[in-house]
TrEMBL record:
It is found in: Mitochondrion matrix. Keywords: Fatty acid biosynthesis, Fatty acid metabolism, Lipid biosynthesis, Lipid metabolism, Mitochondrion, NAD, NADP, Oxidoreductase. Pathway: Lipid metabolism; fatty acid biosynthesis. It comes from the Eukaryota. The lineage of its organism: Eukaryota, Metazoa, Chordata, Craniata, Vertebrata. It is an enzyme of class 1 (oxidoreductase). Homotetramer (in vitro). Heterotetramer with HSD17B8; contains two molecules each of HSD17B8 and CBR4. Does not form homotetramers when HSD17B8 is coexpressed, only heterotetramers (in vitro). It catalyses: a (3R)-hydroxyacyl-[ACP] + NADP(+) = a 3-oxoacyl-[ACP] + NADPH + H(+); a quinone + NADPH + H(+) = a quinol + NADP(+). This is 3-oxoacyl-[acyl-carrier-protein] reductase. Pfam families: adh_short_C2.
Length: 237
């Protein structure tokens, strides 16, 4: 069977590093983001027979169409990575409702929709592997990130419940929970100050998270697991 993987949020950051690693390992990839040009650029850089799709994970219709198109052009999707995510950091009292909704819709509802869309094929073929990218703040909470933390904490509950639901179908669902990683999402943070609190003394690199994602994708006896990749941050939070 072809190893076909859909990487939502694959155009930049952690998702892009996952796609690069998986391309080297011989997977056929769908690179998915809202910005089609960004997704195409990443798919093109990978070399080989990879495709790009535009999709907003928060929109059910978009997600369903994207799965139909992926299956038409790439075949059955048996691996799924949910790395699409946004943050709108602010204290709760200053957070606009629309920013609450957009974070919950992209980070939590989005992964629910892609997992649901992937289920039909994975159940039919009696197998599949999913990794959802959470965050250490989904486990520990962080001031100024209450809504983002809720979206990522929700993702853990969702993933563990789904892992139970589909284990008999030989479908596995796991979570990688990164700490601070060098990407567009963290480029405006005060790194010099923040890294003093990280036991390993630095932000992570996207490839370091990608290795954890691919490890879980390919580990046939691990499901419902949350793998923290945070330079030891959880030890002090
Ligand atoms: P980036 O901002 O670098 O990349 C985000 C990716 O998600 C892009 O490909 C973006 O493409 C895509 N995306 C965003 N919104 C949507 C949407 N509605 N539909 C489809 N695609 C979307 O983020 P990171 O790589 O840093 O983050 C990846 C994941 O890791 C996120 O879930 C994030 O919450 C999580 N994370 C990141 C940490 C970090 O320190 N960087 C720490 C902990 C967790 P486009 O804009 O074109 O849609």
């Amino acid at each position: 069977m072809d190893k076909v993987c859909a990487v939502f949020g694959g155009s930049r950051g952690i998702g892009r590093a996952v796609a690069q690693l998986m391309a080297r390992k011989g997977y056929r990839l769908a690179i998915i983001a809202r910005n089609l040009e960004g997704a195409k650029a990443t798919a093109g850089d990978l070399g080989g027979d990879h495709l790009a799709f535009s999709c907003d994970v928060a929109k059910e219709h978009d997600v369903q169409n994207t799965f139909e198109e992926m299956e038409k052009h790439l075949g059955r999707v048996n691996f799924l990575v949910n790395a699409a995510g946004i943050n709108r950091d602010s204290l709760l009292v200053r957070t606009k409702t629309e920013d609450m909704v957009s974070q919950l819709h992209t980070n939590l509802l989005g992964s629910m929709l892609t997992c649901k869309a992937a289920m039909r094929t994975m159940i039919q073929q009696q197998g599949g592997s999913i990794v959802n990218v959470g965050s250490i703040v989904g486990l520990k909470g962080n001031s100024g990130q209450s809504v983002y933390s809720a979206s990522k904490g929700g993702l853990v509950g969702f993933s563990r419940a789904l892992a139970k639901e589909v284990a008999r179908k030989k479908i596995r669902v796991n979570v990688v929970a990164p700490g601070f990683v060098h990407t567009d999402m963290t480029k405006d943070l005060k790194e010099e100050h923040l890294k003093k609190n990280i036991p390993l003394g630095r932000f992570g690199e996207t490839i370091e998270v990608a290795h954890a994602v691919v490890f879980l994708l390919e580990s046939p006896y691990i499901t419902g697991h949350v793998l923290v990749v945070d330079g030891g941050l959880q030890l002090i939070l």
